[in-house]
Structure formats: structure tokens, C-alpha cells
Predict the structure.
Amino acid sequence: GKIILISNEGPAYQRPMLTKAMFSGLDEDQMALHPQGWYDSRNITQMLHRQVERVDAGNRTVVLDGGETVGYTKLIFALGSECFVPPIPGHEREGVIAIRRLDDVRRVQAISPLKQAVVIGGGVLGLEAASELRRNGCEVTVLELAPTLMGRQLDDASAKLLLAKCADFGVRVELGVQITALEGDTRVTGVRLGSGEVIQAQLVVVSCGVRANTAIAQAAGVTVDRAIVVNEGMETNLPGVFACGDCAQLNGINYALWPEAQAQGKVAGARAAGDAVTYTAEQPILSFHGMGTELFSLGDPGKRPDTHYRTLELRDDARGHLARYYFAEGKLCGVNLVG
């Protein structure tokens, strides 16, 4: 059948590459998911740089900016998510950027001279951004509101080693901080902490998680919780309407991770084409490359207080390597690998 792909951006690209390659010189073609010929050969019509105004589920039409309508037999919402920007006083100033699109990377690259930067958020994307900024010669400070880095995925030993890796790479990390304001007139000049310290910055990168894009689907009559509610077939409550990826929620869970989005997208497409396939929930994996090291986390690294764990630790302090394996009830249940 004919497939129409509507996007308010250009051709689809690998969004996780944005923080990994801010200053690498990669262009849109190098980050693209597929070359143009891939779409043409599969009867996929791309309607790019177009905004969907609303969906008329009763008449099975999509209304675009300018009033143009597109009919559909089956509809898949792959709306993604937007970065959450906390309402810190001054967050609207120029130079405060949440990196979610190619245009955001271009805004970072346009700041000159860029000598000092602050990253708010010590998760994978925040640390990747900090690593890239530091590699580009910028003085970088990471501010994390929690008392530890990646506290849900890392045990104390792994988090401590990651913190040391950041310091070795020349990135300052402050944990358990309170941010009171982003200072400056029209453009940000610094970040004021609860302690009274002001950290100078020409750029503030906000990496505080994402929120699902649901407004268009909800207005069309789709059931929405924190994200669009779907079943194992990626089906919404409306017949012939599906959702997948960052905008979808299955059994109350939405990890908003790239592997999850890929797997759900395949199921949604197959279901829309009539195949009786179902989605099996992904086990979320944390993978980080930056700060001169690598990090991998999977499963439960000893975080359940009611569980008795046995732990196997392999450590090489000279090389900065740490592997910790967690076992419960005789089975491997979690792993942290650093370095």
C-alpha cells in the first residue's frame, strides 16, 4: 500500500547522535536513517517541514497547516517527545538550549566564543553533551539535582568511578545542587546556585528528561495518560489508529529509549498492514560513551531493599575498569560495567 510520512522536520535522522556529535561536522545526510532512494523504492511519500494541525478520526483525515487534508486507512502516531525544561527563572533566555533537533545543535555551534558551559542534568544525554563540549575546549560544569549520578541504573561503586572519570576528563560535576536562577539580560551569562555561587556560562544545556507529545492524538479522541495508551499491538482505543515510540505507553511504562522506539515502530507498521504480531517489552539498557570511558548498565544493580543479592566484582584500578554482577535467587539480575 501507499505510505505517507508527515514530519515537521526534514528527512528522518538518528536523534541519539545529536549529543554525541555536536562538533564532529556530521551533516544531515550522514545522520540520516535512510538515503532518499530508500523511501522512493518503497512507495513512501514524504511530506516534510509540514505541521499537523489536527486529526479528524471520524472522517479519517489529517489536516495540515494551510488547510490541506490527507486521507488515511490506517494512522500511526510516532510523535516522539520534547525535552522537559524546568521553570527555572531565566530559562527563556538565549543560550538556554535543550538539544532535541538538528536546529538545536546549530544554535549551540553558533555561540561564539563559547568558553564556558553548564549542563543541567547528569544522565546519559547530559554527560554526552558535556563530554562533547569539553572535547571542543570548553570549560564545563554538570549540575545534577540528585545526590548521585544515574542513581536508578548504577550502584554506588560504579557511580563513584564515573564521577572520577568526569573529573579526569576535566568536567566539574556538582551533585545535590539547587538552581535558583539563570542569569543574564536577553542572553544567559551564568547559573546561580542555592549556595549563592554563580557559575559563568555562555551556554546552558538542559537535559532533564522528556515529555511525550500527545496533544494532537488526545484532541482526536485517543486515550492519553502520561503518553498515548496502547496495547501489545500498539493499538490505541480508536480503530485503525496506532502509536509507537516516545509518545506511546504500554502497561503504564514508557522508557523513551531508541531501541524501544525501533521495536514498537516495527510492530505498529506490521499491525497496520494486517500482521498479527505483538510487542514484547524491551529491557532498558543504559549505554554511555564519553568522558574518555564507556558505561553499560542492564537490569537491577542491587536496588531492591527487600532482596538479598550476591555480588561478583571484577576491578582493575590501574586501567579504571569495574564490572559488578548482581545475582538474586540464583540468577543474574543486573550488571554495571565501567571502562
Summary: The chain has a mean pLDDT of 95. The helical segments are 17-20, 28-31, 36-41, 102-110, 124-135, 156-169, 215-219, 258-272. The longest strand covers residues 321-328. The chain is about 20% helix and 35% strand.
